[in-house]
Write a structure and sequence with these properties.
The structure holds two protein chains of two kinds.
Chain A lengths: L10 E11 L4 E11 L2 E5 L6 H8 L7 E6 L2 E2 L4 H7 E4 L11 H11 L4 H14 L15 H13 L5 E5 L7 H16 L4 E6 L2 H7 L2 E6 L2 E7 H6 L2 E7 L8 H11 L4 E2 L11 E6 L2 H13 L4 E7 L3 H19 L1
Helix pairs in contact in A: 3-4, 4-5, 6-7
Chain B lengths: L11 H8 L10 H17 L6 H27 L9 H7 L1 H21 L3 H5 L5 H33 L4 H32 L3 H28 L6 H4 L4 H12 L14 H29 L2
Helix pairs in contact in B: 2-7, 3-5, 3-7, 4-8, 5-7, 5-8, 5-9, 7-8, 7-12, 8-9, 8-11, 8-12, 11-12
Classes of the chains: A alpha/beta, B mainly alpha.
């Protein structure tokens, strides 16, 4: 299903010390990025420069400095060609209430250059893919927020772009709607073969959805790496064991043996319920699991649990944020 | 083709997976096609086509109101075997100016304020078309819609005149002059209407503002002209006429299109003064276009 053109090594978005300065603020500050195919999250607080970035990438706003390419086309000179191959879902409401979803999306398909018949066919297909059925013939004014978001997504996908920019697509949705939308975003790449650049100020969302996350703040690049880098560079194992008469404190016994075998045992998280009873250790690979199993068995203890603890992007972000703040305070 | 996702959630979602995604490899017709599509959509919208029944009522009603007097005149001319139509082709739009003003006041905001109010404009500009394409499409669509409104009764008159076996050459000349006049009127009114409407996202304000500018200026100019006429300073009348769109068209066609002026005392501008009228009309049309371009440069995304 995935198109041949969207193999992993293709660069979809590339920027080189991209800057955008307004008279009062610097929205983007020498941002260099290299984004491949897949679902990429652009994370930052409000005002971090996400929307400015999308405007520049659509060729609608000239950069003050630096250059950017989308699908191999220079944004400064090939804006129209980029906009023909790219879809855009704005953050704000953008739907007229007095027309039906079908009419609106057909019109938008034609505005992207699709001939009338193709526009109608693609509209029917796309609305079905985003999960709008009978209601698509009713005026948009009567739709729920979730349905409106789907129409907004449909108009961004109707011309079968190679890349879509989704600006805060989960804004205003309830938890269920949020999950549906995130699932839909994931499918845009896995099922439709369309690369996605999705912005959000919520980090947890992107962990599940994105292949790659770019964190910007104050127009500066904080971090750009794949979500596996973010969350799986080190695997932390959480181990909990039972106590026996022989070893009244099983946790301590295991810790001592493991330490003797050269496994790094971290301080258990204090403050969490039952934290004292959980051993956190850094897994070097398969053998660590075997080792833990053998050690626990040799001591005659019961193994209650052994599970992977994943780092959350939010932790990474918080750390980065703290580091940055420290850097700033050192600087001042 | 379709890939079944084993982890698909239950319910409606599952069906989506079964259908499968089809890519589009057909033609992409680009900027000029998109501009033409926007033009035709806006033109249809100006008569409520492709919109709700409610939005068809007013434009259609005004269209009928424009044409009925022409039909009555034709009927009278045919029945009485008159040797001329009761009203000149060029004069018709001036008589019906209130209806035309009402039409532009209702449809200009419909055309542009909605896109601003519902923030649809960014969706257009995230596609291949540029600011200029959008402005041109909207301007051309409203001007065409107004031309349809103002030219339709002229066609009724012309066909009727031919049926009544009035002089062919004479009628054709008058008809041609009438068409030129209403074409200029359409461009001028559409320009003014769109500029005013594009300032506000509120449709109500747009309607009120357009009506105010068109009818108040006409009322004021006519009154001042009448006062000037009563005080015997008829030389000032043509110059005063420069200050309202309706009298601009009136003056222009009196000077160059063989129309009899509706100015007090029927004194239209002389040819020299007429040139000023032409420049004023063309200047206003160009200024409207320029202002719209400036306005939409700012709206952007």
């Amino acid at each position: 299903m995935v198109r041949v053109t969207t193999v992993d090594d293709v660069t979809v978005i590339a920027t080189e010390s991209l800057s955008k300065r307004f008279p009062r603020v610097t929205a983007l500050d020498r941002l260099s990025l290299d984004v491949g195919a897949g679902v990429t999250g652009l994370v930052g607080a409000n005002g971090a420069g996400k929307s400015t970035m999308i405007k520049i990438l659509l060729g609608l706003s000239p950069a003050s400095e630096g250059r950017a390419e989308v699908l191999g086309l220079d944004v400064a000179t090939k804006g129209a060609a980029i906009r023909e191959r790219v879809g855009y879902m704005p953050e704000h409401d953008c739907l007229p209430p007095d027309v039906s979803a079908t009419e609106f999306v057909v019109h938008m398909a034609r505005m992207s250059g699709l001939p009338p018949t193709a526009a109608r066919e693609r509209t029917a297909d796309t609305l079905r893919h985003v999960g709008l059925y009978e209601e698509r013939y009713r005026p948009i004014g009567g739709y729920s927020t979730g349905m409106k978001q789907r129409v907004k997504l449909a108009q961004a996908l109707v011309h079968d772009p190679q890349l879509v920019f989704l600006d805060e697509p989960t804004n205003g949705l309830d938890p269920v709607g949020r999950d549906d939308m995130l699932g839909l975003i994931r499918r845009i790449y896995t099922d439709f073969g369309i690369s996605v650049l999705v912005t959000s100020h919520l980090l947890g969302e992107l962990e599940r959805t994105c292949d790659h996350v770019v964190v910007i703040d104050g127009g500066k690049l904080l971090r750009s790496s794949s979500t596996t880098d973010f969350t799986q560079t080190t695997t932390t194992l959480a181990v909990e064991v039972t106590d026996t008469d022989e070893h009244p404190d099983g946790t301590r016994a295991v810790r001592e043996v493991l330490h003797a075998r050269g496994v790094e045992v971290l301080d258990s998280q204090s403050g969490l319920p039952g934290a004292g009873r959980i051993l956190l250790l850094t897994a070097q690979g398969e053998e660590t699991y075997d080792l833990v199993r053998d050690v626990v068995a040799d001591l005659g203890l019961g193994l209650v649990r052994m599970e992977q603890r994943r780092h959350h992007i939010s932790e990474v972000f918080t750390n980065e944020d703290e580091q940055r703040k420290e850097a700033v305070s050192h600087g001042s | 083709m379709a890939v079944e996702n084993p982890a698909a959630p239950s319910g409606d979602q599952t069906r989506i997976h079964n259908i499968g995604y089809r890519t589009y490899d057909g033609p992409r017709l680009g900027r000029s096609y998109a501009t033409r599509s926007l033009y035709s959509q806006s033109l249809r919208g100006a008569y409520g086509l492709g919109r709700s029944v409610k939005s068809k009522v007013l434009p259609m009603l005004l269209f009928v109101v424009m044409c009925v007097p022409a039909a009555i005149m034709v009927a009278v001319a045919v029945a009485t075997k008159a040797n001329d139509l009761p009203v000149d082709y060029t004069r018709y739009a001036i008589i019906m100016q209130a209806v035309i003003s009402l039409y532009v006041a209702s449809q200009a905001p419909q055309s542009v304020s909605r896109d601003l109010r519902f923030k649809t404009v960014p969706l257009y500009f995230s596609r291949p078309i540029e600011t200029a394409d959008y402005v041109r499409a909207k301007y051309a669509a409203l001007a065409t819609a107004m031309f349809v409104l103002t030219a339709a009764p002229l066609i009724v008159l012309y066909v009727g005149a031919l049926l009544a076996k009035l002089d062919f050459a004479d009628q054709t000349k008058g008809f041609g002059q009438g068409l030129v006049s209403v074409a200029l009127l359409s461009l001028l009114f559409a320009g003014i209407g769109l500029v005013i409407a594009s300032i506000t996202p509120r449709r109500g304000f747009g309607i009120a503002a357009v009506i105010a500018v068109l009818t108040i200026s006409y009322g004021a100019v006519s009154t001042v002209q009448a006062i000037a006429d009563a005080q015997g300073s008829s030389g000032a009348i043509p110059w005063i006429g420069l200050f309202s769109p309706v009298t601009l068209i009136d003056g222009l066609q009196s000077a160059f299109l063989g129309a009899s002026s509706a100015f007090p005392g029927a004194v239209g501008p002389s040819n020299g003064e007429g040139v000023v009228y032409v420049l004023a009309v063309l200047g206003l049309i160009a200024a409207s276009y320029g202002l719209l371009m400036r306005r939409y440069k700012k709206v952007g995304l």
